[in-house]
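Throughout this review, each integer encodes one residue's backbone shape. One record appears below.

===
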Amino acid sequence: MQFMPPVSPEDQARADLYGLLARLFYAPPDANLISELRLAAPPPDGGEPLTAEGEALRAAWAELAEACSSAFPARLEEEHLQLFVGVGKAEVTPYLSAYLVRSESDSPLARLRGQLAEWGLARRETAMEPEDHLSALCETMRWLIVGRKAGLDVQRRFFHEYLHTGGSRFCSAVSACDNAKFYRFPARLLQALLNVEHKAFAID
């Protein structure tokens, strides 16, 4: 039996935040989740002075909580459908390979599928979304942190190769969309998390 060290509070907080963002962008929040977000405490800071990126993360969390105070599930369902699903074409694609430079000999989605296969992960047969959906990538990061308990080098490589650049461009697209009344706040939280992670990985 191989001993698996416990997850630190900081890593658990990271994983929880990735999981929350995966949930928010996969489907609109229901009344229970809206209520929980409105009352939830911000992510812990580890007891150390906050960096500029950490301050931005807490500010984005506060903005999301405030947005939840006037959010209604039916409106969020309409907004999510309009932004990320669409009748003919979504206003903002949640598939991050669309934001990456590719060549005839390189497919980000194919590389991603190969990496997931190495880890024994595969899309459920009932799932309609490709593996490069933002929510799937956030869930993979959550799994790497608390499921696989992967080392920082593995987390860093996956983050930079599949999530950071495409995720940042996705956030910019949401923020620039006039119809993103509520979802501009989850996008700001996601961007803040990406910035925190990027700096932390550069240090470690």
Observations:
- The CA atoms of residues 146 and 180 lie 31 Å apart.
- Residues 9-203 form a domain with the TorD-like fold (CATH 1.10.3480.10).
- The radius of gyration is 17 Å.
- The chain has a mean pLDDT of 92.
